[in-house]
Records
---
Amino acid sequence: HNTRPDARIPFQLLPQTATRTPFDPHKVTLEEIDEVLEEYDDGPFFCGDMITAADIAWAPYLERYAVQLPMLYSDALPELEPRSREYPAIKEWFDAMEDLIPCWACRVMGDPNVYAGLLKEAVEEEGVEYVDRVPKTVANALHRNSFPGDILWKQYASGKPYLAATPAEECAAQLVRNRQTLLETASSDTTTQIHLSKDDVDVALREICDSLINVEDDDQAAGLSPKAHDLVTRLTKDLTAPKDMGMLPLRSLRLLSPSAVDQITQPLNPSDITQKSTPPPSPTDSLFFS
């Protein structure tokens, strides 16, 4: 199956029908993966304490499963929630990929919002109910107190003079490098309530970059102007990982967006279960790269 980030959701819908695939095959798959991971006592990866081709091969499927199964099978949790305590070895594998492999979180890891968008796009065409929300177990993954983001970035950026010193500075650098594209696209966007001219976008970008580089407290968004807030909202909607930048730099930008922070901290409520929602951004398009 095609495992590119723009591939359709794998295996969750029966072909040419408006029904989900049966519950049992997904549960069996997760149980068997959990058992395989438990076979090696010396490490959390598929072949022990070192990452191998087996982990790389399974990663695109497992990170999609972690987002899409709980969204589509909300009536079958925690049995179909890969990052739950139901599957301790899988949960440990995810934590190890994020905490121990610098290139994963810094550049390779896929964007949960993209996988959620792919699911929404597919199921809304078929009228299938789903939870319109990235699972909290996934949304919180890079916001754990134990997540060593700064250490990982330092390891990843070592020996790479083209990378900035921190994820936030790397995000600012990417915005500066692609300033002209952002001026054109943001100023021509007619889908938002606030219209931004090119001058507005330029000033807002400067505010955002200044906040990314210089503000160290947790409330980075507090000092942004309304137009800068609006641009952050547009950027967090349109930019994706790993296509535009890695998850750690992108996370720095999303932390400037109140709506992104709300999605991380707010619990699920029944109104999130829906058949209709606003159209998701196209996961196949990149704001920076053609």
---
Amino acid sequence: MQNADDVKDHYYAKLNYVAQHLYINDDYKFIYLAIPKVACSNWKRLILRLRNVTDEKKLSYPHIFSDHKRLVDLPREEWRSVLQDYGYYKFAFVRNPWTRLVSAYVDRFTRHDQWWYGYIQQTEGKRMIKNHRAGATQVEISSASDVRFGEFVLDVLDHQQTAPNKEVAVNLNEHWNAQFFIAGLCHPWLEYDFIGRYEELDTASLDVFQHVNLPEYMDSFPKPSRNSST
């Protein structure tokens, strides 16, 4: 039988990955869950502006600078109290899993001009071609420059089928990791006040802005097009 400390350690372990995606704003009292490929760039950019960040480089690349405050940045002993503070509005946005998967593939495997392309080729593309392309040559595997959508999908499914307890492995790239896993749904310490749909981002965002008292952003918040790869 597990003792209380073992149970607590288990809950912390289950929350560690999620904590990397929970962004905290103390001034407006909200906690935002950032799921990649669900307009998270726009939300992170807004959060930086609320922290008075004006550097255009940081605003252009809101993922890669350390001006954010995330749950994972706090001492682990504070996580539970922060998440269960009902004074903070906790919200997230999710997206149709299929369109999110397509968006991730297009963004990470076809945009050759982006800085991440070479990194993705070497860390993800080689494995996908090696494991899922019949008769792949060593040149194809080494260059990994033309990962096909089918190979990409099969690789994602491989991770889902082999992960423990039917959960997608923590080391699966966050851009195509399962949304329920990133969100930590069903974790006993985490209950969201609002979960909106990417497909209704225009109207759902207004609900969030009204709740956290940010009416001045209602008309200026960037809205992705229906075919966006955001």
